[in-house]
């Protein structure tokens, strides 16, 4: 049976489809690589879940990067009362609870004091012969690798456009713009004995703070240098310390931590109209889900943050409903 459409028209049709595909992809790349939407924060951090856990963090203010590597068998306290688990177990727990990487991400945020913008799993690189963290990260963030892996079943909460932009900026950075911190080679991770005689790897908070120091600061928060007072309006002890560690890590200036006189449901940030419109206030409002109030002014701090039950729930056992 003869073909009803001549072969040369088939070839012509395929060329048109190919050209249209290239055009669409080009427009997509131009849109996301060269005209990205304005980020919420100048400091953006991506958790890469591979055979090692990597936090890849970018300070858009000065285009400097940090790669922080953490062994998957490191044990930390899980959020919502889950107890002590390895990073690997917390990741798997997210799959069981059908919450993606949220349990691991929030637990790591509290353990390290680093707000994490996104997470992305890459299960394709196990046992590949990488000799340095930067080799593995460059492989995962290679644009061609992303194009072939993004539609896989690997867990992620980052959009393709955001990941392409993030990887594009990273791959164009020079070696002197990248700081590599391998926590396994520092005093920040150490062994501790369990009652049964076995050993586990744990984070040492004070050593973590020394190692990370100012590496994860947001330069604009540091430049604004607003003084911040934190109050705990819940029954959960040391809630203010958890928040203060995160604020200090990103360059904030916490001057006091105390208890509020009454219980509140939602975080409230107060200050003058000018300070509430600052970059620092806008970012912290999002991080702690605060409402703003200009009627209360703390004479000893530029910004006052009252943490309520909504933030407390991050640390309380989750209630399962049928």
Beta-strand content estimate: 15-25%
| Structural domains: how many | 2
Walk across the major sheet and give the strand order.
6-1-2-3-7
Stated plainly, the CATH topology of the largest domain is called: Nucleotidyltransferase, domain 5
Residues in helices, as a percent range: 25-40%
Task: Write up what this structure looks like.
The strands form three sheets. Strands 6-1-2-3-7 form a five-stranded mixed beta sheet, with helices on one face. It has a five-stranded mixed beta sheet with strand order 11-10-14-12-13. The chain has helices at 7-34, 87-96, 102-112, 133-140, 143-149, 160-171, 205-212, 219-224, 239-249, 273-276, 279-287, 309-312; strands at residues 43-49, 53-59, 64-70, 74-78, 83-86, 118-121, 178-182, 189-193, 199-203, 227-232, 253-259, 268-271, 291-293, 303-307. The protein contains twelve helices and 14 strands. By secondary structure, it is α/β, with parallel strands linked by helices. Strand 10 (227-232), helix 9 and strand 11 (253-259) form a beta-alpha-beta unit. The protein folds into two domains: 43-185, Nucleotidyltransferase, domain 5, CATH 3.30.420; 219-312, Alpha-Beta Plaits, CATH 3.30.70. The radius of gyration is 23 Å and the shape is globular.
Compose a concise summary of this entry.
This protein is of the alpha/beta class.
Describe the protein's topology.
Blueprint lengths: L6 H28 L8 E7 L3 E7 L4 E7 L3 E5 L4 E4 H10 L5 H11 L5 E4 L11 H8 L2 H7 L10 H12 L6 E5 L6 E5 L5 E5 L1 H8 L6 H6 L2 E6 L6 H11 L3 E7 L8 E4 L1 H4 L2 H9 L3 E3 L9 E5 L1 H4 L10
Parallel strand pairs: 1-6, 3-7, 4-9, 10-11, 10-14, 12-13
Antiparallel strand pairs: 1-2, 2-3, 4-5, 8-9, 12-14
């Amino acid at each position: 049976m003869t073909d009803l459409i001549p072969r040369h028209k088939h070839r012509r049709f395929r060329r048109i489809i190919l050209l249209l595909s290239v055009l669409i992809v080009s427009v997509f790349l131009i849109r996301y690589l060269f005209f990205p939407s304005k980020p919420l924060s100048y400091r953006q951090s991506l958790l890469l879940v591979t055979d090692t856990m990597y936090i890849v963090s970018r300070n858009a203010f000065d285009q400097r990067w940090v790669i922080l590597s953490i062994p998957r068998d490191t044990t930390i306290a899980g959020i919502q009362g889950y107890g002590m688990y390895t990073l690997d177990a917390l990741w798997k727990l997210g799959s069981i609870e059908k919450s993606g990487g949220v349990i691991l991400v929030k637990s790591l945020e509290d353990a390290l004091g680093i707000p994490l913008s996104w997470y992305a799993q890459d299960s394709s690189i196990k046992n590949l012969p990488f000799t340095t963290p930067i080799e593995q990260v460059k492989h995962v963030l290679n644009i061609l690798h992303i194009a072939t892996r993004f539609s896989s079943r690997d867990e992620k909460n980052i959009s393709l456009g955001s990941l392409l932009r993030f990887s594009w900026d990273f791959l164009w950075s020079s070696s002197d713009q990248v700081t590599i911190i391998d926590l396994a080679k520092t005093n920040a991770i150490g062994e501790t004995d369990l009652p049964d005689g076995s050993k586990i790897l744990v984070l040492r908070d004070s050593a973590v703070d020394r190692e990370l120091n100012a590496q994860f600061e947001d330069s604009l928060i540091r430049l604004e240098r607003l003084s911040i007072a934190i109050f705990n309006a819940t029954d959960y002890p040391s809630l203010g310390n958890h928040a203060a560690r995160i604020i200090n890590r990103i360059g904030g200036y916490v001057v006091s931590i105390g208890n509020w006189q009454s219980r509140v449901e939602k975080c409230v940030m107060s200050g003058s109209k000018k300070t509430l419109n600052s970059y620092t206030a806008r970012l912290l409002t999002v991080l702690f889900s605060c409402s703003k109030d200009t009627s209360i002014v703390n004479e000893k701090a530029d910004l006052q943050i009252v943490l309520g039950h909504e933030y407390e729930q991050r640390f309380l056992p989750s209630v399962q409903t049928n």
